[in-house]
Amino acid sequence: MKLPKQIRNNLRFLVAETASQVSDLQACIENPETTLARRVLERSGYAYNLMLRIQQDCHRRVIKSADSGTETAALKSIESIATDLEHITGLCRESIKQLNQVQRRRCPGAGGCGDMLGRVSRGLDQVEAAIAHNDTRLALKIGRIKSRMEKTSRKLVKKYTAGLKRRKHTEDLVAGLFLIHGIEQMGNDLLSISAAIISANLGQPTNIDRYHSLRASMEQLDSGNDFSGLAAEPIAETRSGSGISGISASGQEEGDYVAIYKDGKKRKLREERRGLANWHEIYPGLAPRILSYHKHGQSASLLIEHLAGLTFEQILLHESNRLLRQAQEQLNRTQKKVWRETRADKPVAAAYMRQLSKRLEEVYAIHPEFRQDGCRICGKTVASFGDLLKQVHRLEAGVMAPFSVYIHGDFNVDNIIYDPLEKKINFIDLHRSRYMDYVQDVSVFMVSNYRLQVFDVLLRKRIMQLTHDFYRFAAAFAEKNADSGFELRLALGLARSFATSTRFILDKSLARAMFLRARYLLERVLAADLKDPAAFRVPVREIFVG
To answer: Which end of the chain is less congested by CB atoms within 10 angstroms, N or C?
Structure first.
């Protein structure tokens, strides 16, 4: 990456200072010397000031830069590298302090510690070249130092632990264990520096595991296809921490991808892979095809087919009424077909209140004002939300859907894609798909419309109209399939979605409106005659107002 002269010079000074302190520490371990140790301890301010200069300069340039892509990624990577280098100097000082606790002339296991520090020095020598030449191979080489240091560290820890059991020179051995830990952390910093250089080269944040997965996926995509110059462009981040990138070939228009790459925690990606595979078996053509799946450490990646079209959210907010009607009609047809063809005549309980209870602490973490005790107003007892939840939880034990269908599981408006040319609906983000009460998808869809932070009066009216139309469609399906408890379960599902969605909403006014709607629905359910669930009605028009 090409760095501004001032940043480049300060980075050079910081790398040199860090390497110097590591070298001095190595010399102190081999041959303890008070003067050398004091020099390391007294030079903390220089590295810290260099780090601050680099970070402040990078920050100023990010603010001024009109380029939000490659240049910004490079500057943020340099900020991260400066922090890691300064942290290594801090570890050098802590290591010197541990050496001062050693009573014997020479630190036990000095040879092994010196070997680890030698690896750190060689890694530092490669940092400038890796940055200057955008050398990903050299960056990976720097990152591999950590695993090699760990092998030496394990041997030393085993040796020191055995010595502690013999109860000889225990103070020296304890100091030695802390020393090893400090030096081993330098390997973590080198790994972080490696990841920062690779992130700058890719133009998006990544780590070593993610890089290996991305490279394997792109190599597999390129082989057997007439693609050239494949590049990854970050397009989204999920709330679970997964990254989503579009893979494009050279010469393609912006946004025209050959595949979609998702990476993140192995468990999440494994669930999504299973969800996609299940949809292809149960209802082919609705979910994107899996092109490849790779695991690397605790991370995994999924390369899936890029689906043409627009998300339902994009259509709702930015496209014509005519296109919205087309998409809505096709969505209704698709849903009816999926529900009909996947129906299993076995009662199922969604346990909406249990789902809400599991997420309530996360809601309170973002909105602590929602955590309130019960009170009395004009002689009338007003239960706390927690007490209401417990009451409805007991009541819900006898509420079941008469049949189950295969649901999306996260049926938000941004997880539904409509292709106007093919007049086709597709689903994405399917890691929560399973056989369940179809009302769960209905309630999630309705609330995902409500929580859109749009305050234009006409657009808000359009959003609410879509919500009402989808409710009427689902209610008609319920009536045709003799589902007399549809409205009662919808109230429970809506209460769950309204309350849990507030953990993603920072607008206090909107979050409060959603939480109060959840409370109102719980109160309506408690006041209902459960002997006649068919008589219950959700006040949809009153709830879904702008």
So the answer is: C
